[in-house]
Amino acid sequence: MSAPKFRVAICGGGIGGLCLAVALSKYAHIQVDVYEGAGRFREIGAGVMIWARTWRILELLGLAEQFAKVTDVEPTPDVGFEYRRSDIPTGFKWNFVAMPYGCIRFHRAHFLDVFVDNLPEGVAHFGKRLVSYEKGVGEIRLTFADGTSAACDLLVGCDGIKSVVRAQMLRAKAAEEVRPDLLALIEPKWTGTIAYRGLIPAKDLPSADGTRHRTLGTPMMYCGQNKHIVAYTISAGKIVNFVAFASELDKEGRDYGGEWVTDCTQDEVLQRVDKPTKWAIHHLAELPFYVADRVVLLGDAADIFSQIKKKLLKTHLGSGAGQAIEDAFILASVLGATGTNNLDEALEAYQRTRLPVANHVLRSSFESGKMFEFNSSFAEEYSTLGPAIGRQWGFLTESTPEGEAEKALGILRTLASG
Ligand SMILES: Cc1cc2nc3c(=O)[nH]c(=O)nc-3n(C[C@H](O)[C@H](O)[C@H](O)COP(=O)(O)OP(=O)(O)OC[C@H]3O[C@@H](n4cnc5c(N)ncnc54)[C@H](O)[C@@H]3O)c2cc1C
Questions:
Q1: Which CATH fold would you assign to the domain 6-417?
Q2: Phi-psi domain of 318 (left: phi exceeds 0; alpha: psi -120 through 50; beta: other)
């Protein structure tokens, strides 16, 4: 008789949860279940970009060929963002950041579909909105809003910014360790920034002098005081993804007081944006841990946005999805290499590897948002601001995903042997 499988429950089927599910389902000793609150896996109608580092992970997971079919750019070096001053009558280019292998762009729905297509049968469970979990003898019981329940050996919270798993984990730790300060980390705070998002058919893009609009050729960052616009093509160049950020610095940390994501009118954004949406960008305090016993956090549930004091945003480096994928890759690597015997050590190895990197990206991202809106210490000094922006992406090449996985496995081996 074969040994019972180790049961991993993934709460939330966004990019992070689905990447983890696909990566874990390759291991024969692991049973994977994804519990998604919605009736199906879905992404919003917008673009997502990843960098060469994340592309490498997709290669290591054996998925790159499938992702290549749904990206509109050949991953080639030296494509990056062009930065323009755009809040004055005559705009001008003041910076260009070339990236190794450029930015690789997708329609979000197509991106998610590749993970969905690689999920083995029986892994996905829909309409399963987690309400709470309870640690029983040797297992964790999950309770869902539809009145059903399930059991697992490890719960991974991939349930996004409003994570139920994170909230319960922090409440439990605050009570156990008499640390009321942890309760302040539960609720995300508004950053004072609103992002307007939408897609524009490329054929509708206006061109002042009859020439091809520059956004159709190069990913663009249109910068102004307290606002900036990110625009790049997806879907084989037929669609332009558009995100306009508007910041009110004095509103940082206040309650937003409404729905965080709503539809908005074209009048509020641009006539040509199809079905625009309005996002109140929220941030969380940096978490001191990702793991509590057999419960672990990943992706936006773990670290999405920022530090209370420093106000960090991963959004500005186009890295939230990439970081969630890297979380999934490292967690799958250590779980794949261990059985239940060394589970605590595996989770500790995941935490020690990911926490410092994720926090570093958060910090760089926060600073980048300020730089794009001329609110950093460089202000409008283009000659120093440009290179400083380039350095913000340093984390992409300072290590490799394989190296990070090897580091995590080394920590696991050391902890397991000690
Ligand atoms: C304006 C903007 C632009 C961005 N652009 C980029 C970019 O270009 N590149 C990039 O890398 N990142 C980008 N990001 C960040 C990126 O989108 C996120 O970091 C990423 O999608 C997070 O994935 P996730 O799986 O952790 O969470 P989510 O995508 O939020 O998925 C969470 C899932 O959990 C489900 N769920 C929630 N609660 C429960 C529950 N209680 N029970 C069961 N299921 C539940 C939800 O239905 C959802 O399916 C951007 C973010 C913003 C706001």
A1: FAD/NAD(P)-binding domain (3.50.50)
A2: left
